[in-house]
Write a structure and sequence with these properties.
By secondary structure, the chain is α+β, with helices and mostly antiparallel strands. It has two domains: 108 residues, Rieske Iron-sulfur Protein; 268 residues, Naphthalene 1,2-dioxygenase Alpha Subunit, Chain A, domain 1 (Alpha-Beta Complex). It is built from 14 helices and 23 strands. Bound molecules: FE2/S2 (inorganic) cluster and fe (ii) ion.
Length: 440
C-alpha cells in the first residue's frame, strides 16, 4: 500500500494519472473506501420471491448472499460460516429451504443469519464459544434498503441513506417501473456474465461517452442502417431492433447534440437519442394500457422522459426505457465482472418484453458486435495504460464549457468529457478517506 495517496497529483481537473487504472494498491483502497462503503446493488426483490430463495453477490471483495426470510424480509449476509469460514452458498442462486447448512460440519443458520444449531454442541462446554455470541452468527451487511424493488446494501453503518446516495439518479428506477402499467418490474432470470480484461472505470466512462459510438460501432451501425433502409423501401417498415443498431452510426454532430447531466456522487444521465415511441399496433395496445392505469397526462410524462442511460456510480448502468441493468463487480485492477440483466414490465404485452429482449441480445450480450467492440477497446485501453509512453489520461474535451447548478454539471455537448471529470470528482471524494488512517 502506498505510504500516502497523492490525490492532487493523481487526479487533476483535466487529466488523471494512468496508475489509477493499473495499480493494485490503489485498487485495494478503492475496494475499501468506495465499494465496501457505498450502497451497492445486490439484485431485484423478484430474484428472491420465495422464502429461502437466495442470490450470491460480490460487494467489493466481500462474498455476500441476499436471501428472503420467513417474515418476507430480505437480508444481505456475509457468505461465510462463522465456524471455519467455508462459504455457505456455492451457487449463484437457489433455494436453501428454511436454513443455511454448512457443507463442512453442518452448523446451521436461520435465514436472518442467526445460528440455529451446532452438531454435538456439548463439545463446546467449558470453552468461550457460546451461541449467544454474535460471532456464532452469519454476519450481516450493516445496512440494507430497497428502492422500487431494487435491493442495495452498504457494508458501512454510516453514510447517506440509499435515497440520498441515489439523489436524482433514482429516476433510473422510477423510469423503469413507471413504464409498467402495474408500476413494477420483474427480473428475467437470465444473466449474461462477462469478465472484462480492464479496469472498472473504463466501463463507467464509456457508458456516457457519446464520442465513441460512431467510431467503435460504425461497422455494425452502417450495416444495420443499410438493411433497415432496404426493408423500409420494400415492406414499408423495419423492426425496431434494426433501429437499435443503426443509431450507433449517427454522425459526430448528432452525438454532440445529445445532452449529459452529471450529478453528485458521480452519477449521470445520457439523454435519449433513439426515439423509442413507434406507432405500431403493439405500442398502441401498450400505451392504451398505460392510459387506463395512469390517465393520459401521467402516461405522457412517463413515456416521454428523456433518458438513454442512467449511471449509478461506481458500478451500475441502467437503460430504463429498455429495462436493462448492467452491474460491475471489480475483480482486480485489470479485471471486472459485469452482470447483464433485463426486466419485464409487469402488465405490459409480450411484444414490449420482446423489444427489451432484442436489445439485451443485440446490444448488451457478449455475443454482439456492439458489446464485443467495446470490450476490445477497454482491453486495449488497459494494455496501453501499462505503458510508460505517457503518464496521463486526458479529459480536456469541452473543459471550461460546463455549467453547474446546485452541484449538477451540465454540458450541451454530448461528447464533452464532463462525464469523466464528474466521475473523478466523486472518486477523489471517496478516496480522500484513504488518506486518513483507519483501523479496519
Ligand atoms: S466450517 Fe462451517 S460448520 Fe465447520
Ligand atoms: Fe460502445
Amino acid at each position: 500500500m502506498p505510504a500516502a495517496l497523492d490525490l492532487d497529483h493523481l487526479v487533476q481537473p483535466d487529466r488523471v494519472h494512468r496508475t489509477v487504472y493499473t495499480d493494485q494498491a490503489i485498487f485495494d483502497l478503492e475496494m475499501e473506501h468506495i465499494f465496501e462503503s457505498a450502497w451497492v446493488y445486490c439484485g431485484h426483490e423478484s430474484q428472491v420471491k420465495e422464502v429461502g430463495q437466495y442470490q450470491t453477490v460480490q460487494i467489493g471483495r466481500q462474498p455476500m448472499v441476499m436471501v428472503r426470510a420467513k417474515d418476507r424480509q430480505i437480508h444481505v449476509l456475509y457468505n461465510r460460516c462463522p465456524h471455519r469460514g467455508v462459504q455457505l452458498c456455492g451457487s449463484h442462486s437457489g433455494n436453501t429451504g428454511s436454513s443455511f447448512v454448512c457443507p463442512y460440519h453442518a452448523w446451521s443458520f436461520h435465514l436472518d443469519g442467526k445460528v440455529r444449531a451446532i452438531p454435538l454442541i456439548k463439545g463446546y462446554d467449558g470453552t468461550r464459544l457460546s451461541t449467544d455470541d454474535p460471532d456464532c452468527n452469519m454476519a450481516r451487511a450493516a445496512r440494507v434498503e430497497s428502492y422500487r424493488g431494487f435491493v442495495f446494501a452498504s457494508l458501512s453503518p454510516t453514510g447517506p441513506s440509499l435515497v440520498d446516495f441515489l439523489g436524482d439518479a433514482k429516476v433510473a428506477f422510477d423510469d423503469m417501473c413507471d413504464r409498467s402499467p402495474e408500476g413494477e418490474v420483474e427480473v428475467v432470470p437470465v444473466c449474461h456474465r462477462v469478465v472484462q480484461q480492464s479496469n472498472w472505470k473504463f466501463f463507467m466512462e464509456n457508458q456516457l461517452d457519446a464520442l465513441h459510438p460512431s467510431v467503435t460501432h460504425q461497422s455494425t451501425g452502417v450495416s444495420a442502417r443499410r438493411v433497415e433502409k432496404q426493408l423500409k423501401e420494400k415492406e414499408g417498415s423495419a423492426p425496431l431492433h434494426f433501429h437499435y443498431l443503426s443509431t450507433f452510426a449517427s454522425s459526430f454532430d448528432q452525438w454532440d447534440s445529445v445532452q449529459t447531466v452529471n450529478f453528485p456522487h458521480g452519477h449521470g444521465i445520457l439523454k435519449a437519442y433513439m426515439g423509442l415511441r413507434p406507432t405500431d399496433p403493439d405500442t398502441q395496445e401498450y400505451e392504451a394500457l398505460m392510459r387506463k392505469a395512469y390517465g393520459p397526462e401521467k402516461t405522457e410524462e412517463y413515456l416521454s422522459r428523456s433518458i438513454h442511460h442512467v449511471l449509478i456510480y461506481p458500478y451500475l448502468s441502467v437503460q430504463s426505457p429498455l429495462q436493462q441493468v448492467r452491474c460491475l463487480r471489480p475483480l482486480g485492477p485489470d479485471k471486472t465482472l459485469s452482470e447483464i440483466w433485463h426486466f419485464r414490465l409487469k402488465g405490459a404485452p409480450e411484444a414490449i418484453y420482446r423489444r427489451s429482449m432484442w436489445y439485451f441480445n443485440l446490444v448488451n450480450s457478449p455475443a454482439t458486435m456492439i458489446n464485443a467492440d467495446d470490450l476490445e477497446n477497454w482491453t486495449r485501453g488497459q494494455n496501453g495504460l501499462q505503458s510508460k509512453g505517457n503518464d496521463w489520461v486526458s479529459f480536456h474535451r469541452n473543459m471550461g464549457g460546463d455549467t453547474e447548478k446546485d452541484g449538477v454539471l451540465y454540458s450541451n455537448n454530448g461528447t464533452s468529457e464532463v462525464v469523466m471529470r464528474n466521475q473523478f470528482k466523486a472518486w477523489r471524494n471517496y478516496m480522500s478517506r484513504a488518506q486518513t488512517p483507519t483501523t479496519a
